[in-house]
Amino acid sequence: MKTSNSTANDFSKSQYLPLEDNLEERVKPSKSSISRRSFLGKSLAVGAGTVGAGFFVNTRTARASGGLTPGDAALLRFAAAAEILETDFWVQYNELGGIQDSEVPGGSGSSAYHDALTVLDGDMDQYIHDNTEDEFTHQNFLNAYLASKGAPTVDLEPFRILPGSSATGSSGKLRLTNLTQLTLDTSWWTRYRSRTKNPDFGDTFPQAVPTLAVGQHTAIPRTDADLSDSNFVQAMANTAAFHFPTIEQGGNSLYPSMAQRATSREVLRILISIGPTETMHFQTWSDKAGNAPPLTDVVDPVTGVKVTFPDLNSPPFGGEDFQTNLIMPEPCPFLSPTLPVCSIIRPTETKGVAMGALKFLTDMGLFIGQSPAFFALMKQLAQAADFARHDGG
């Protein structure tokens, strides 16, 4: 997927809690869907009936052919689903702020939004384009590989129900993900700069942008009306700039965590080959987020929510844990506090990683407005991946 406090936006231990813990608060169903409480109470039973035989995955009895164990197939299916979702929101960013061409078609660009993004880096449109293309290749490869082995693939098209942006430049297509009501945990910023803590040990980390961790913020113009205030346009671009690495650090941890559960050497090769591209994306976007211009109490004209982007190099921030040019991961404790510190991806604990990833995305607000059937399917895919064992399960 291109480019803490032990909370929902990394794969630390608190993310292994049941998905239901936060869905009720973070996700509102579409008008046509059943109530959240009814869905959550019936859980997978509703999912199986709603999604239908073409989507339901029986995690304990499925048999993948072509040499893939059920566990390996489940790991790749969850990765494919995550990549499809990631492709969906990167396409939205590319339509409005990236380069639209034959490699990544759709949309025609929003000049005001595009220009606000270039404040962070003159090549932002190219980076957004390339990250989007990468996500397409990941989703396409994973599904094609599963099909080549006779294993079920992942199709999320029935859940393309969210309206997305209607601003000039957007294709206006229905979406899988919601970029207009984001709540971002930016504790990854200090997590990767800390020399003394590791989320795998249960350590917590302060936020880089505390106001993004509360309320709901749009990272794209919802309509052309959002483009009338230049400060708000820059706030949307800054929000996107922090959303990019927030997402990519998730994939940065997801792939090595899942790789530890793979049985097949070829599946292991797939996971450890795609995973480092996530790291490349994460480092790129963490560098660009550091260029976000400071803004104070910018008000969303629709919701009234305020956002402040601090100067991370100045008090009350500042110091190594916030320094914006520290884009290489600082060494930290690894495996045991008695061993020397080591510069690593963090976290990489594997227990419950897929459900943790789903919780991370849900808590972010990416799925606000999605259907109960969508959550049922995603939960089934995540549980199947977490059931995978290195010994062939």
Descriptive overview:
With 393 residues, the protein is mainly α. It contains eleven helices and two strands, in the order αααααααααββαα. It has a two-stranded antiparallel ribbon. The model is unreliable at 1-65 (pLDDT under 50).
Q: Tell me about the biggest sheet?
A: 2 strands, antiparallel
The strands making up the biggest β-sheet line up spatially as: 1-2
SS strand fraction: under 5%
Terminal Cα separation, in Å? Answer: 26 Å
Tally of helical runs: 11
- What is the average of the pLDDT values? 87
User: How many extended strands?
Assistant: 2
List unreliable stretches of 5+ residues: 1-65
Computed CA radius of gyration, to the nearest angstrom? 20 Å
Helix content: 40-55%
Write the element-wise H/E pattern from the N-terminal end onward.
HHHHHHHHHEEHH
Going by helix content, strand content and strand pairing, the class is mainly alpha
Note the overall shape: globular
Count of folded domains:
1
Give a quick summary of the entry.
The chain has 393 residues and is mostly helical. The protein contains eleven helices and two strands, in the order αααααααααββαα.
Key terms:
393 residues, mainly alpha, globular, 11 helices, 43% helix
Note the topology.
Layout: H1 20-26, H2 36-42, H3 44-51, H4 70-97, H5 111-118, H6 124-148, H7 188-191, H8 230-259, H9 265-289, E1 295-299, E2 306-309, H10 353-363, H11 372-387
Antiparallel strand pairs: 1-2
